[in-house]
Amino acid sequence: MRALGEAEWDGVAAGTDPVAALFWAEWCLPSRTALAALEAAAAGRWRAVSVNVDESGGLARRLGIAGLPTLLLLARGSERARRIGLVPPDDLPRLLEGALTAASQ
Asked: Which of 5, 31, 57, 66 is the most buried (most CB within 10 A)?
């Protein structure tokens, strides 16, 4: 999973490829669990990226990230879903597929 900084975010977020972005922090145990689960669930259909909020606090504030972990799903340059807290690994594929379906309509 590619780690993004503030300077790279706008280019990735504006792209046409589906992006699953996890906002996390090293000190947050659920965040570390979410990193591994997202990487496995996103393989192939989503570009998975991570943003460490301790290193990119300005971006987190700009996007209204208020809790960790926060998962943003972007498709065609628009936010399609936002989940705060640890998403159960079994629910991730369904969440990702639902966001892709919504983006294609």
From this structure: 31
Would you say 53 and 23 are in contact if contact means Cβ atoms under 8 Å apart? Answer: yes
Closest CA to 20 of 97, 88, 102: 97
How big is the CA angle at 6 (ends 11 and 19), to the nearest 5 degrees? 45
Residue closest to 21 by CA, chosen among 80, 73, 61: 73
Q: How far apart are CA 57 and CA 40, in angstroms?
A: 26
Cβ atoms 69, 34 nearer than 8 A: yes
Q: Residue-wise over 61-77: b if at least 16 C-beta within 10 A, else e? A: eebebeebbbbbbbbee
pLDDT digit string, tens, across residues 60-103? 999 999 999 999 999 888 999 999 999 999 999 999 988 888 77
pTM of this prediction exceeds 0.85 = yes
- Residue 74 DSSP class: E
**Tokens 């790279």, residue located:** 8
CB 96 within 8 A of CB 90: no
